[in-house]
Amino acid sequence: MLPQELIRRKRDGASLKREDVKEFIAGLTSGSVSEGQVAAFAMAVFFRGMSREEAVGLTLAMRDSGTVLQWDLPGPVVDKHSSGGIGDNLSLMLAPMLAACGCYVPMISGRGLGHTGGTLDKLDSIPGYATQPGLELFRRATREAGCAIIGQTVDLAPADKRLYGIRDVTATVESVPLITASILSKKLAAGLGHLVLDVKMGSGAFMTRMADAEELAESLVDVANGAGLPTTALITDMSEPLAPCAGNALEVAHACEFLLGRRGDPRVMDITLALGAELLLSAGIDSDTTAGRARLAATLSSGKAAEHFERMVQVLGGPKGFLSNHQTLLAPAPIIRPVHGDEEGFVSSIRTRELGLAVIELGGGRRVASDVIDHRVGLSGLLGKGVHVDRTQPLCLIHAADEASFNKAADIVKSAYVIGERTGESATILARITG
């Protein structure tokens, strides 16, 4: 089918045949379909949507636009994906915890997007760590360490990279079918056997309404299962930062302390164990999620998860003994000072997205794709909802490169915290979506 005919059919609300979508995506990859045609296709999907069958076809076509990995390993191949939030460093802990349970985790992660941090930017703060290795090193790290967290290579789902770049400049990023195909094509290309999704909802998430989070979670789960990948999703709370920090090196340091057993933040622990237990259940390692949570928790107390993380860092080029020496190996910011609120009371709510913008103001995120990130900067000791605030209790510590950025970030942080009456604790896991 001619590209313009496929675009016309979708524009007019007709269903697209899988073979026609595959041909269109092949043209997108080879360049025989023009940028204007790709933009028109994205806009047609944005307004007309896609059926489950169409979305499965698009996802598989994008998966097949490059290399699809095959694994011959003595355990299940699993992964987790998060829709992004503030202080969301769970991948750094969960991947080695799953590896310590006998799983293999070839995790393809992304960079920061908008106000949210990216796992690859966090790992770039580790000296020498190769976030963009070749496929052979990716395979070796997965095999030897049980987990490898890297960025998308040119070999895996290359159609996604071109399509996303065009969506980004044509106001079509928010299309649920296109988001679904973008996420899942890379996961399917990684050769996974089981997947769990962490869809964030709240003031720090892309989905601020429960209905939108449910729509995305259901689309992802339906299409993944339709493409042959057993998948469940948890909708989790992002009305406050997940970890008590935001910023690349700071979140790596927090993950190190967590794996070493020196931190056990309740919200971080709850969601990490819940996501991991879903995968252990799906993979048949445990018969229920209660047993899965216990198995995962044991990898922390035994030190096994820490060993797998250490091995992953070393195989991918990071320093030997990074975990136990992270405090000296992660570069500190020149300025580290507290910021206090202007009134006394309890943290009643947090405009969590604003905290992500404060990190960008400090230089820890990107305004445009070409920006160079300062991995040292960010926020630590972030207060959660319900905590009492007075003149002695700072809202957080700001890690800044200079006085100007410190002052701008301090103003943003103070405006993000709403001080008032004490509120009850909010649930961390809001819903579970199954296929």
Throw out a few tags for this protein.
435 residues, alpha/beta, Transferase, Pyrimidine Nucleoside Phosphorylase, Chain A, domain 3, Pyrimidine Nucleoside Phosphorylase, Chain A, domain 2, Aldehyde Oxidoreductase, domain 3, four-stranded mixed sheet, four-stranded antiparallel sheet, 17 helices, 13 strands
Q: How would you sum up this structure, described in words?
A:
It is a single chain. This protein is α/β, with parallel strands linked by helices. The chain folds into 3 domains: 3-49, Up-down Bundle (Transferase, Pyrimidine Nucleoside Phosphorylase, Chain A, domain 3); 78-158 and 167-326, 3-Layer(aba) Sandwich (Pyrimidine Nucleoside Phosphorylase, Chain A, domain 2), CATH 3.40.1030.10; 332-420, Alpha-Beta Complex (Aldehyde Oxidoreductase, domain 3). It is 46% helix and 14% strand. The protein has helices at 3-11, 18-30, 35-48, 52-63, 90-100, 119-123, 135-145, 158-168, 176-189, 210-226, 248-259, 266-282, 289-301, 304-315, 326-329, 352-362, 403-416, and strands at residues 78-82, 105-109, 147-151, 194-201, 231-237, 245-246, 335-339, 345-350, 378-380, 388-389, 396-400, 417-420, 429-434. The strands form 4 sheets. Strands 1-4-5-13 form a 4-stranded mixed beta sheet, sandwiched between helices. The longest helix has 17 residues, at 210-226. It is globular, with a radius of gyration of 21 Å. The two termini are 32 Å apart. The mean pLDDT is 94.
Binned, the helix content reads 40-55%
Strand-and-helix sequence, N→C?
A: HHHHEHEHHEHHEHEEHHHHHEEHEEEHEE
Number of domains: 3
Q: Might you state the CATH topology name of the largest domain?
A: Pyrimidine Nucleoside Phosphorylase, Chain A, domain 2
Number of helices: 17
Radius of gyration, in angstroms, nearest whole number? 21 Å
CATH architecture of the largest domain: 3-Layer(aba) Sandwich
Indicate the overall shape: globular
| Side-by-side strand order of the widest sheet | 1-4-5-13
Q: Total strand count, please?
A: 13
CATH-defined superfamily of the largest domain: Nucleoside phosphorylase/phosphoribosyltransferase catalytic domain
